[in-house]
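anyone else get weird line breaks when pasting these?? whatever heres mine. first is seq + tokens for prot A
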Amino acid sequence: MKSEDTPFEGGPMDGRVLPVLLGITGHPPKTYRIPVPDPAGGPPTVLVYRRVPRAEGRIGLTHRWKYEYAPEGAPTRRLNWPWSKPDATPPGKRDDADG
């Protein structure tokens, strides 16, 4: 498989460059999770980094990526079927029924 040296920004991995495996489309994964073992023997802490464009190419296409630290973790994904009803209240907004 092909890999690409990808820089990490923010968090404990700030300034490091790691080889990241590329997918079938030639892009690295959207999120990169790094498990860090607990020295006391507890459950490992997982650092989450999100893929963002490093710079735009000549015609507006992104050829290179970098990872930025996401302290809140990975966003929850929900299947988006064409027949699904949208959420009544967008995340982060108050509903009138809440008072």
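and prot B, same format (seq, then tokens)
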Amino acid sequence: MDVNAAVAAAAAIAGVLTGVIAMLAFRWSERDQKRPTRTSLHTDPVLPPGVDTVLSVLRSSAVVLDEADAVVKASSAAYALGLVRGGKLSVDPMLTMARDTRRDGEIRQVELDLPRRGTGRGEALAVSARVAPLGSRLVLLLVEDLTEARRIEAVRRDFVANVSHELKTPVGALSLLSEAVMDASDDPEAVERFAGRMQIEATRLTNLVQELIDLSRVQNDDPLEDAEPVRVDELVAEAIDRCRHQAGAKQITMAAGGTADLHVWGNRGQLAAALGNLVENAVNYSPARTRVGIAARRVSAPGGDHIEVAVTDQGIGISEKDKERVFERFYRVDPARSRATGGTGLGLAIVKHVAASHGGEVTVWSSEGQGSTFTLRLPEAGAARDRAHQHPDLDDEAEGSPDPSPYEPLPAPEVLP
């Protein structure tokens, strides 16, 4: 009996000791987990609450860096611009800004030109970078792409400079001619000659102002607000009638042909102005006793049929280097001929904007010394109307097309005197 009591007592003591040891081990383990270690000091930082959501809706490219300059968070736009590669910020000036901001906590901003990723061209991306501290360990980098804004600003400056130059030329000529008329008041022949020149310059100035107004209107207005089915035959007849006097003076034959009874959907006034500019250019840049043809046809295209109206001349043609620029405002292939014909350099720019705003395009084929063919391509009335009603947001989008090529001659043109 005494032996059994001793065994029971020993077992009880052993159990108590085991429990005490287990409790001590558990408490020691808790203290050990709470104590900072070398590895725990370098765990990945966590973004402050709400920052991830804010960064996802920003238009700017966003990058968050930790204390080791590693990327914690980066938007898809940052990757697209090539700012982040291999988990690191790849732009050295921005990385230097981030380190300086982490050191002193000051917000910094700079504008940089970055090489365009994935292209061999010399073009650069203009960006504005802003760096600010985010908490005690993180740095936030916001990058805004200014390339398009810079391009638009350059276009605006060029436009203002060109307008100033184009307006000064006839205004200056009118001023000089008026002085010449005053000085030659006793010479009727000189007065008549100078007065004729004044009429020419006044007409040039009037045309320039009118085309500036037309260009502004087609850029700012929505032509499909007042859209209607427009007969292509009527547009062609109106364009020919507009240039009949100039063509008759140069003995140029104008011929209309192609498919009859075609309709396009759009603003009649703008479409008439666009086609009239193409025909007028063809007449002005064609030698005497040549032929200008206007032909229309229907072509199949994804999303609905299109109508092509081609204007072909036998003029001086356009070189390869000039083809890419003929639709720029105030650009002239032959400045001397433009001065002689009173051209302003805005006609093709107006055609381009009218075509784009109607969901179409204008293309050119040309060979020096053989003439040119300008093709105005617009959605057919039914398809364009249905698409405008179903998808109003697509009004300003231009449809794609194959590479421009010589327009196939159409049979049985009707020669108009």
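btw re prot B: Residues 239 and 276 are 4 Å apart (CA to CA). The radius of gyration is 37 Å.
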